[in-house]
Amino acid sequence: MKPTTITEKLLFSTIRLQTSQGVGTGFYFLFELDDNKKIPVFITNKHVINTSNEKVSFSLHFAKNGQPSKDVIILTYESEWIFHDKYD
Q1: Which pTM does this prediction carry?
Q2: HSE-up (13 A, CA, CB side) for residue 83
C-alpha cells in the first residue's frame, strides 16, 4: 500500500515511543526548507518526554516489494528535545 491521502499518510507516520517512564505516541514529520534541506523530527506531547535529554526507543518496520514485512529494528535515540513553553 502506498499512502496517498492525508489519512493514510498519518497512519504511516505514527510512532510508538518508549521512554524510561513509560510509553507514548508521536508523529514523524519531515520539514522541507526552501534550500532543499530536509529536517526529520518527532512530534509528541510534553508528558511523553519528561526531560530535555530523554532517551527514546522506537521500532522501524520494513517493506519488501511494496508489502509490509516482519523485519523490524529497534533504535534508541537521545537528543535535546525542544519543548513548547506554553502547550503540552
Answers
A1: 0.68
A2: 13
